[in-house]
Design goal:
Order of helices and strands: HHEEHEEEEHEHEHE
Distance between the termini: 19 Å
Strand content: 15-25%
CATH architecture: 3-Layer(aba) Sandwich
Oligomer: single chain
């Protein structure tokens, strides 16, 4: 798939630029993947770099469908990281119901991670609930951007909203979806996120070219 992308871009240096972690060697003989779709996961947060990563994923999906006539599903993952730190007060577990995501091109996979909110002495429960609602609304806006790009490409698409540690939640989605590639808006193997998820990541990790 990477070679196909490189050829479509008319370049000969793309693979060495964007392959941040190689595909791991399987511990057991690989099962046939003929009957299952190719799953491309993208870490997305609406930043320009993550937008580029999503665009590359759709481009690769398009090239693969044309060449192999195989279903390819692109999946965007947005992770809301816990910024409250360790519990110093009795945690308030909120009933997290996401707004309705209406798009023919997407499905939503909600994290099973509970949100634990720890109000400080200056925060009321109402304020914490409002902050949580604002966070979910912002997540909806970000994933709406990803779905809009999916509709432009007219391909199979899913989106995931996760709560917790960024590297761990990305790994969880990769494992659940049996991902073939994880796309990130990183340009170097020395990026802090790449250092966190390596080694022994379940699939290859691809970034974006230095020239983009």
């Amino acid at each position: 798939m990477l070679a196909r992308l490189q050829s479509a871009m008319g370049r000969d240096d793309i693979i060495e630029q964007i392959l941040l972690l190689p595909e791991p060697k399987p511990a057991f003989p690989e099962q046939s993947s003929i009957n299952r779709p190719i799953n491309l996961i993208v870490g997305y947060d609406a930043s320009p770099s993550s937008h580029t990563a999503l665009d590359i994923a759709f481009w690769m999906a398009h090239q693969t469908r044309l060449a192999a006539n195989q279903e390819v599903v692109v999946q965007a993952v947005y992770v809301v990281e816990d910024s409250y730190g360790e519990a110093k007060y009795h945690p308030l577990k909120l009933n997290r119901k996401l707004p309705n995501f209406t798009s023919s091109a997407s499905e939503i996979s909600k994290s099973h991670t509970s949100i634990l909110i720890h109000p400080t002495a200056r925060e009321t429960v109402s304020n914490v609930q409002q902050k949580t609602l604002n966070t979910i609304q912002e997540a909806d806006r970000i994933l709406w951007q990803a779905r809009s790009l999916a509709e432009e490409w007219q391909g199979s698409f899913k989106s995931h909203l996760r709560f917790g540690n960024l590297s761990q939640e990305l790994k969880t989605v990769v494992e659940i979806e049996s991902a073939d590639i994880l796309f990130l808006g990183c340009k170097s193997i020395y990026h802090p996120l790449i250092r966190q998820i390596s080694p022994n990541f379940p699939c290859a990790v691809v970034g974006i070219p230095n020239s983009l």
